[in-house]
Amino acid sequence: MNEPVLVKRHGAIVVWTLNNPSARNPISEPETIEALEAAIATAEADPEVRVAILTGAGPAFSSGGNIKHMRDRAGMFGGGPADLRPGYRHGIQRIPKALYDCEIPTIAAVNGPAIGAGCDLALMCDMRIAADKAVFAESFVKVGLIPGDGGAWLLPRAIGMARASEMAFTGDAIDAATALEWGLVSRVVPGEELLATALALAARVAVNPPHVLRMTKRLIREGQHQRLESLLELSAAMQAIAHTTEDHHEAVAAMLDKRPPRFTGR
User: CB neighbours of 129 closer than 8 A, spacing ≥ 6?
Assistant: First the structure.
């Protein structure tokens, strides 16, 4: 088997590529789950990494669960309910937890079909760019299943309850133009420009102070479920930290001096 997730550094940017193109990059195999979880943890622990891009090898972004394994009741799809429940909890559900807790800003560069859990995988990222040939489907109902990896939580937050319900109840795919109109992605580009566009966006993010990026992402995450008063209290505490960093003082000095800042992550 090929290395399930390819990792490539571009300075402060890391690119994770799902690498099982012959099977359309499913994410239900233990090897892929472990490799992606490890790649996220490695980037999270590296203060030099400021942005991560997730994409797929070949024509597909991700087909989600392995349909052949579902048919054969193999891998995480084997056994009875007592086996399947921990199979999900200790298997594919590790991916949304890892990406949600990752404080590095993430970009999904959706190069092709993002189907079922593959659609949800794109939603797990903070920003999403699609190739013009990409399609998205919350298609679990088509195989007699429910969104088992967080899609019922992620999709309504991305596109609203009505459109999320339409996608989940019909299982029908939407094209890249519709995904853009609905706010599922922020831009659509020709396929040959996808990675370059994602890298350019990542570079615009990566020029900013790394600690502030991580704290800002944490505040956005916490703001999804906290009361305003609680978030303001957390913001005050994080702002107190930010005010004492060398990067803050450098940012202010550079702005007043009308020169590019030089951030060190301190």
Answer: 107, 108, 109, 110, 185, 186, 187, 188, 189, 194, 197, 198, 201
